[in-house]
């Protein structure tokens, strides 16, 4: 078990460009979450999947954001037409189904939009 | 709606001193509560969690936390801090219903340990 991995770890892009991040959860975990963390703040929920189904999206997830988990394994988070306000750490977490199950977090992808 | 408040943005303690980090939550039912630690450039690591039962829970690295329903608090404690404990600490509340179980995090407390 190698834990949750995220790629890339850092991404610098120019405003208006599209970016895509990948998350590989712990293999037996059927839930996958995306959070955004800005400087001085705690992680804020963006969306989550149970297997391949996207079951909930936060109001923070504007229409420029899209997430997929096509085969119920890895997930991608795409941001189109990036803005400077999108600069943040994007964290992925996975867990088993059930409220008592902790979420295991990946190291995050730090996005800088110039 | 669920929410978490961590009143202390930054705390400085001497190595070997005791530590208490405060966390207050708002939740309509019995909450699931968690403390995570984040070192610079790293993801979040779970220190401990509370679901039910004994209100004093033990975690990793010598940390413990006490759930006090009357005060809506879940404070984190450690009797003797080590220099390696310097990090950002986040309290989180999760849903006790078997739904999405998204976590609501506080804004974090940054811990500095001085020799």
Description:
The complex is a heterodimer of chains A (114) and B (115). Chain A has strands at residues 5-7, 10-13, 19-24, 31-37, 44-50, 53-57, 65-68, 75-79, 88-95, 104-105, 109-113. By secondary structure, chain A is mainly beta. Chain A has no helices and 11 strands. The mean pLDDT of chain A is 92. In chain A, the strands form 2 sheets. In chain A, strands 2, 4, 5, 6, 9, 10 and 11 form a 7-stranded mixed beta sheet that branches. A 4-stranded antiparallel beta sheet of chain A has the order 1-3-8-7, with no helix packed on it. With 115 residues, chain B is mostly beta strands. In chain B, 0% of the residues lie in helices and 50% in strands. Chain B has strands spanning 3-5, 10-14, 19-21, 24-26, 32-38, 44-50, 56-58, 64-68, 73-78, 87-94, 104-105, 109-114. In chain B, strands 2, 5, 6, 10, 11 and 12 form a 6-stranded mixed beta sheet that branches. Chain B starts with a strand and ends with a strand. The mean pLDDT of chain B is 91. Chains A and B meet through strand 4, strand 5, strand 9 and strand 10 of A and strand 5, strand 6, strand 10 and strand 11 of B.
């Amino acid at each position: 078990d190698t834990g949750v991995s995220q790629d890339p770890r850092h991404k610098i892009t120019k405003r208006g460009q599209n970016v895509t991040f990948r998350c590989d959860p712990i293999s037996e975990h059927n839930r996958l979450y995306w959070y955004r963390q800005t400087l001085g703040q705690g992680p804020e929920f963006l969306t989550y999947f149970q297997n391949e189904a996207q079951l909930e999206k936060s109001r923070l997830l504007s229409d420029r954001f899209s997430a997929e988990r096509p085969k119920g394994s890895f997930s991608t988070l795409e941001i189109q037409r990036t803005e400077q306000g999108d600069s943040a750490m994007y964290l992925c977490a996975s867990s088993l189904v059930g409220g008592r199950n902790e979420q295991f977090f990946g190291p995050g992808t730090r996005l800088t939009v110039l | 709606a669920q929410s978490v408040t961590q009143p202390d943005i930054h705390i400085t303690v001497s190595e070997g001193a005791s530590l208490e980090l405060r966390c207050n939550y708002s939740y309509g039912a019995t909450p699931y509560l968690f403390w995570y630690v984040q070192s610079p450039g790293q993801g979040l690591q779970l220190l401990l969690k509370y679901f039910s039962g004994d209100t004093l829970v033990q975690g990793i690295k010598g940390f413990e936390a006490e759930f006090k329903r009357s005060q809506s608090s879940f404070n984190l404690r450690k009797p003797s801090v080590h220099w390696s404990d310097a990090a950002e600490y986040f309290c989180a509340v999760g849903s006790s219903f078997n739904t999405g179980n998204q976590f609501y995090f506080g804004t974090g407390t940054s811990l500095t340990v001085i020799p």
